[in-house]
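FORM 7B: Structural annotation worksheet

SECTION A. Query
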Amino acid sequence: MKGHFYKPHCKCTTKKCKCSATWSYIIDVGINPATGKRKQKKKGGFATKAEAEDHAAALQVELKQGTYVEEKEITFAEFTEIFIKIYSGSGKVKVSTSDLRRKEINRLMKYLQYYKMKNITLTNYQDMLYSMKYDEDYAHNTLIGTHRTAKMIFKKAIEMNVIKKDPTEFSYIPKEQQTVEDLEADKEEVKYLEKEELKLFLDTAALQGLERDHLIFTILSYTGMRSGELCALKWKDIDFENQELSITKTLYNPNNKAVDYGLLTPKTTTSRRTITIDPEVIDVLKAHRKLQNEVKMKYRDTYHDKDFVIAKTSRTPGYPEMHQFINWRMHRLLNICKLDESLTPHSLRHTHTSLLAEAGAELHEIMERLGHKDDTTTETVYLHVTKSRKKDTSSKFSALMKSIK
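SECTION B. Predicted structure
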């Protein structure tokens, strides 16, 4: 077998070695293109010469097949810097997604940052997942996100010939076995307003709401828009003549500062949509535009005039409102109405779904209006609302058959 096998720390003078020195090998792995000199691979720590020979033989097979990878001397922390630059600079991901990756990388750093990429094993990685689950008590969804990011990192490392084996390949996220009682307790309850409750809520917004409350919650209720989509809405997105509204962006404001915002494209292609709006929505928008023009005149020198519909009226006039503002306003109104205060602006999307289903709209029509390609929660609301309608259909069939003489 080609290669040199030796015991680098052996001090024995006889042929029968009695010391504890381990075996190593040196093998040629190619030519260095920069110097023209041969490159050699050294590997030690083998208990016997046979083990060293077996390892060297496996390496020679890789060389012959062209699958050999010269793993790099780079730490996890160093490589993740390279990864995030490539990931963020690809132009294919939104700023919010890049920020999420950075947060998940920070969780991984606690466990892996000082390891060399090539030395991270399945055992190391699985131990990390166990620790995150049982020592740190991370939520299951947090573990899923962190695991997903780790797999992306190691996949990129393989693509770049930094490592040759992915330590996450056979790993798994630990999950405690749930009992029937646990499953029943964890069953998600989709919350929304019944039509009488929605009328009470909107009437309260009109009579006891603060500035723009009735406008904001009428639009959310009648369109099924996300609050981020509403905050990013501009006047040019509204076609008053054809009573249509185009949804093409969402607000991104990670630091909760009015002046520090960004506009992002929707998460999916189906989220970009044009919907028909009711005369009630047209009326409140026209009335609001008149009031907004008065605010522009008042703050003509400082108004951030970027065409936002739901714009701030003081302190930072013209800047788009933030999600937290809408959450707080809704909580206040729910408290006045004595309705469920755990409801959120997103609950109004579910409310919109339920009322459309009650009115007879088909599921695919509702999905298209909400900008969904597929959504389990929307399907759950739809099926719940249409259950009674299906019973009525069955009763009609039965009545028809009984009428035949």
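SECTION C. Observations
The chain has a mean pLDDT of 86. The domain at 76-174 is CATH 1.10.150.130 (DNA polymerase; domain 1).

SECTION D. Sign-off
Analyst initials: ____
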